[in-house]
Amino acid sequence: MSDNLIISARDVKKTYNTGKVIVPALRGLDLEVRRGEMVAIMGPSGCGKTTLLNTLSGLDSIDSGLVEIDGQDLFKMSDRQRTAYRAANMGFVFQFYNLLPVLSAAENVEMPLLLDRSQRLKPKQARQMALDALEAVGLADQAYQRPAELSGGQRQRVTIARALVNRPAIVWADEPTGDLDSKTSQDIVDLMRKLNRENGQTFVIVTHSEEIGLQCDRIVWMRDGMVETPAGNLAPIPVPTPASANGAAVAVPAI
Ligand code: ADP
Ligand code: MG
Question: How far apart are CA 107 and CA 149, in angstroms?
């Protein structure tokens, strides 16, 4: 495995059993994501995109297969280790990860810092980091407003600030622009791109919008619980040839 890979999933299978029906949601999923990539996951409704995010982040279990994050086998960890690992290394922009209505934007954003005990932050430090994250998403002036006092786009910015406040290596986003108008959607994508470039964080973004997909480094297409191309469409890393190392012109074959 290249140490350039931050996510490596091999033959991941996941079946939901509701008691009435058995749904094979992932049927042998392979995915590789390089550190610092911004990847879009696309595919028809029900093809397993949300299940991919839930399992590869360790929020939900898998039936079989291998998930390595930064070279570590996610499902060899105990539940407790995995929860701590997630708190320290992952951020989530999920629709169902709702903001808490009784808390201000700043209090919502500082939540992951308080949950991540490895940081041992003092309340004042956590608050300052939350305010910095809100400033980064353009909400410095709304820090003490509650979610109900914010627009849909502003609320989504708060969830992004919350996902990014502890500078996680990986950010998982599930249709982050789902309910937003096209201008606000574009602002959110620009913001994620900026944070990706400036901080080198890896983004895995599920989206229905091909326009958004095309702004990512790569689109991974899913169908029927699998990635359409093996190894998650990861193109081989070009290896310099001896001729190019000498500075001679090299004809690059069309792929
Ligand atoms: P997508 O996000 O691409 O729309 P999902 O990952 O949500 O797809 O779902 C994949 C399949 O698994 C679908 O057939 C869906 O109905 C089913 N599914 C998802 N979550 C559950 C669950 N908690 N219980 C039972 N079936 C589920
Ligand atoms: Mg979904």
Answer: 14
Ligand nearest to the CA of 46: 1
Nearest CA to ligand 1 atom 22: 16
- Distance from chain centroid for Cα 205: 6
Going by C-alpha positions, the residue among 99, 84, 220 that lies closest to residue 154 is: 99
Atom of ligand 1 nearest to the CA of 222: 3
d(CA 164, CA 117): 16
Whether residue 115 contacts residue 163, with contact meaning beta carbons closer than 8 Å, is answered with no
52 alpha carbon – ligand 1 mean position (Å) = 10
* Residue whose tokens read 């999933």: 9
Which stretches of the chain drop beneath a pLDDT of 70?
A: 1-3, 96-97, 230-255
Atom of ligand 1 nearest to the CA of 17: 25
Question: Domains of the chain by range and CATH?
Answer: 5-98+168-227 (3.40.50.300)
**CA-derived radius of gyration, the chain:** 19
What is the distance between the alpha carbons of residues 94 and 64, in angstroms, rounded to a whole number? 25
Which one-letter DSSP state was computed for residue 252? P
Q: Which of 165, 139, 141 is nearest to 154 (CA)?
A: 139
Angle between helices 123-136 and 105-115 (to 10 degrees): 120
